[in-house]
Structures are given as structure tokens and as C-alpha cells.
Amino acid sequence: MTHTYSVGVTGAAGYIGSRVTRNLLADGHDVVPVDDFSVGTVETVEGTTIETLDVRNTDALAEAFAGVDAVMHLAAVSGVQDCDDDPDEAFDVNVRGTEDVARLCRETGTPLVFPTSMAILGDIVETPITVDHPRDPLNTYGLTKRMSEDDVHALAAHEFPAHVYMKSNIYGHHEIDGETVGKNTVINIFADRAKEGKHLEVHEPGTQARDFIHVKDVARAYSLSLERLVGGDVEPGAETIPLASGEEYSVLALAELVQRVTREELGVEIDIEMVENPRSAETDAADFTVDTSHARDAIGFETEHSVEETVRELVSA
């Protein structure tokens, strides 16, 4: 690396944000990490203390991020259930909070990297999925992320460059200062239950598919965007980039993979049980093929982790 930058990171105590912070510090960048600690639990990364700050406190945010070269905005109420449990908070954090961050970037001309989710798409009506897929979210989480995507595009126009990640389903663990950081995503849940000898519950019909991408791969993308947005010759305006691995599994196929790996690694037979799906407000598309060429062309992104490799690591750990 030939350049180092000052980078503000929101949501730095969380699942992805802590890994992004760790990578930036490892690359020699100066990082200003902040989090309101409503969910995230990581307090320090590589000796750098994460400051307690709510992104909706615009004066404090402007003071903390004064002079940074780029902003990575990961603070959010994430996940379908959390947003359904408190939709008012979800809209306030995910929409108003993101708008506040984007307005700060607009005032200062600071590049921004911001993740949405493929939940913004709703039912999958055409594959392979590209950035041009219609948006018709089925739940509060997807709606808040859809609205924030629009806000970032509107505020970035002619004012500052931004990358908006339309990311697929994340899995895997990582370590920060010797402590494991994880999240209750479907692959992680299946692997944890299999290690304990418990059966795997698959929501009906089981054919619903998703693309799965490792948290470490997602975090690496932020560093690639930093080099393009700050170190490259990029015009103002936002670009939405699908961020996916190209590894597509149905939930049932995923359970069967974990079942097989557990048998091979531990010599234990795990049962699979089909159960009623409590999440009607999610797509049950059986084809979730994603075109990964956009991320490769835009930021040189390639994944380094595979689902089966990670399942073996999780089950054997």
C-alpha cells in the first residue's frame, strides 16, 4: 500500500464493522471508530478504543469525523426480526441516521461506503440478480434499506463519491484481539447446533435459496472501495454494487451440507426437521443466482472463503 488515510467507521463494535475496523488498522490507516453499543460488544480493536456515539447526534458525529478522508457507515438496526420488533427505531436509525451521515459527507465532500441488503429486492423476478433488479421490499428491514439507498444516491449526486453495497446473506466468525465475533445467521446457527448434536430446523418449504458470503470477504470489500474512492479518480455520485459470492444454497441443501460435514468431521448423525416458516415476509425464491461481475469490475473484488470450507471450520472448532 502506498497511501494511508483517515477513516471514520460507524457501527464499529458490530459483526461487520469490527472486522472492517481491524482490516483498516492492519493496513496502516488512521481509524475513528464509533458505535452506540446498542448491539455491538467490541470495545477496542488493535488497541484503538471505539467511541460511544449515536450517528443521529449530528454535532458529535461531525466533530468526531472532522477531517477524515472517507466514511464507512455500518451503524444500523439489522435483520428482519429486529426491525419488525421496533419499526420506529428501525426507520429512525436506518433511514434518518443514514441520511444524517450522507448529509455530513455532502457538506464535506467525503467519500462514503454504505451497505444495504438484497432484502431491498423483495421477491426475485429475474436472475441472475444485478443492480438493475426491481426493488419491492417485503419487510420493514428491506424497506428501510431501500429508502436509505435512495437517500445516499440523491445526496451524493454531483457532491461526493459513494459505494452502496447490495450485500447477500453473511456467515462465518472472525476474531478481534483473540475474541470470537459472530452473529446468529443461518449457517452459523446450523453449525452451532450440529456441534451440540441438536437437530436442524428448516423453515418450509426448504427450497428457498440465498447467496451466502463470508463476513471476512465482505469486510475486505470496504478496503477495496477505500482505494477506489479516495485513491482513484472517481466522479461524485453513488454506485450500487451487488456484493455476493456466487455460492447459492437452498436452506434445505444448506442443512444437508451441515449434516454431511458433521458426519464426516465428528462422526455424529444430525437430524433435519421441517418446520412451519414464521417469516412470511421474505422471498421464497428457489433461484437466487447473483451476477458477481459488477463487484469484480468496480473494485476488483473476489471472495476468498467458501461455504463448505467454513462449515467444516465451524463444526470442528
TrEMBL record:
It comes from the Archaea. Residues 9-230 form the NAD-dependent epimerase/dehydratase domain. InterPro entries: Epimerase_deHydtase, NAD(P)-bd_dom_sf. Pfam families: Epimerase. PANTHER family: UDP-ARABINOSE 4-EPIMERASE 1 (PTHR43725:SF53), UDP-GLUCOSE 4-EPIMERASE (PTHR43725). Belongs to the NAD(P)-dependent epimerase/dehydratase family. This is CDP-paratose 2-epimerase. It comes from Halocalculus aciditolerans.
